[in-house]
């Protein structure tokens, strides 16, 4: 997994690319989120459009990321969910936890 | 879907996470060759991914000397997938329901749920000499994927 970030109106937009799976991107996602929060940025928008594969470990890391950011008084939201990731969040009812946006500007304004 | 022949494919891997995709790809190709659409093949492949990951992590406890054995049996539209590890076994009934509101924010425990969602049946058995064997079945003629399993 690769991650690149930029700041728009005080919101850290992190674009994730590739796989978020057990033994691969799952621990990397945790590291990216931890580093971002530790640097004082706690308005985080994860752009998921370039995520090619995710498994239950990756889903678990998304949940853990949400908890990490929330516990630090911040917010973590999702942008551009691929269809299969959307399905995985629906069947586990996690779609009720995450705020999901399809438009970047609207997502940034929502923080 | 009509298939006159039965087919068996077997692969044995060492307990490394990077080997998971090998087994997943076999599952997806087998399904596509049997006429399952791309989405349906993907969901079956994901069930296999979760099963192999569990076998490596919870079964063999990341011991690379221990193997994971995968077997695919296609008999007409009936697909049976067996994933066996060489570990000491674990009790899948101890995994909490991820849909329980108390468990919603847990970071683990969704793998078996996904397997049950994407496949028709999932059964565990424990071998006398050690090891857990997981058998998942799917009738490919009934359609595949989340929509069919939910409705």
Describe the overall structure.
The complex is a heterodimer of chains A (111) and B (151). Chain A has a single domain, classed as STAS domain (Transcription Regulator spoIIAA), CATH 3.30.750. Chain A has 4 helices and 5 strands. Chain A has helices at residues 25-38, 56-71, 83-91, 104-109, and strands spanning 2-8, 11-20, 43-54, 75-79, 100-101. In chain A, strands 1-2-3-4-5 form a 5-stranded mixed sheet. In chain A, α3 links the parallel β4 and β5. Chain B is α+β, with helices and mostly antiparallel strands and 151 residues long. Chain B has one domain: 2-Layer Sandwich (Heat Shock Protein 90). Helix content of chain B is 32%, strand content 26%. Chain B has 4 helices and 5 strands. In chain B, strands 1-2-3-5-4 form a 5-stranded antiparallel sheet, covered by helices on one side. In chain B, a hairpin with a 5-residue loop joins β4 and β5 (132-139). The model of chain B is unreliable at 147-151 (pLDDT under 50). The A-B interface holds A 21-24, 55-57, 59-61, 63-64, 66-67, 84, 87-88, 90-94, 97 and B 17-18, 20, 39, 42, 46, 49-50, 53, 57, 98-99, 104-108, 110-111, 113-114, 117, 146, 150.
CATH H-level homologous superfamily name of chain B: Histidine kinase-like ATPase, C-terminal domain
* SSE-based structural type of chain A: alpha/beta
Name given to the CATH homologous superfamily of chain A: STAS domain
What's the assembly state of these chains?
heterodimer
Q: Could you give the order of strands across the largest sheet of chain B?
A: 1-2-3-5-4
Name the CATH class of chain A.
Answer: Alpha Beta
- How many β-strands of chain A, per DSSP? 5
Distance between the termini of chain B: 20 Å
């Amino acid at each position: 997994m690769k991650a690149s970030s930029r700041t728009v109106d005080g919101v850290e937009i992190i674009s994730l690319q590739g796989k978020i799976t057990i033994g691969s991107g799952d621990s990397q996602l945790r590291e990216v989120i931890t580093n971002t929060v530790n640097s004082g940025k706690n308005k985080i928008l994860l752009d998921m459009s370039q995520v090619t594969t995710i498994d239950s470990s990756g889903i678990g890391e998304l949940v853990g990321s949400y908890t990490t950011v929330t516990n630090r008084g911040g917010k973590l939201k999702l942008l551009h969910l691929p269809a299969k990731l959307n399905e995985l969040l629906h069947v586990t009812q996690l779609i009720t936890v995450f705020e999901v946006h399809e438009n970047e500007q609207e997502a940034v304004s929502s923080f | 879907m009509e298939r006159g022949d039965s087919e068996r494919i077997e692969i044995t891997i060492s307990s490394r996470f990077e080997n998971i995709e090998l087994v997943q790809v076999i599952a997806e190709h087998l399904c596509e060759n049997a006429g399952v659409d791309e989405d349906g093949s993907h969901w079956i492949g994901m069930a296999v991914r979760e099963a192999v990951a569990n076998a490596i992590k919870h079964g063999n406890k990341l011991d690379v000397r221990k193997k994971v054995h995968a077997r695919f049996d296609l008999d007409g539209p009936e697909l049976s997938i067996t994933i066996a590890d060489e570990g000491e076994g674990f009790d899948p009934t101890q995994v909490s329901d991820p849909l329980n509101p108390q468990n919603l924010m847990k970071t683990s425990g969704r793998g078996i749920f996904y397997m049950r969602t994407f496949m028709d049946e999932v059964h565990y058995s424990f071998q006398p000499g050690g090891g857990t064997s997981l058998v998942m079945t799917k009738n490919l003629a009934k359609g595949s994927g989340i929509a069919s399993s939910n409705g």
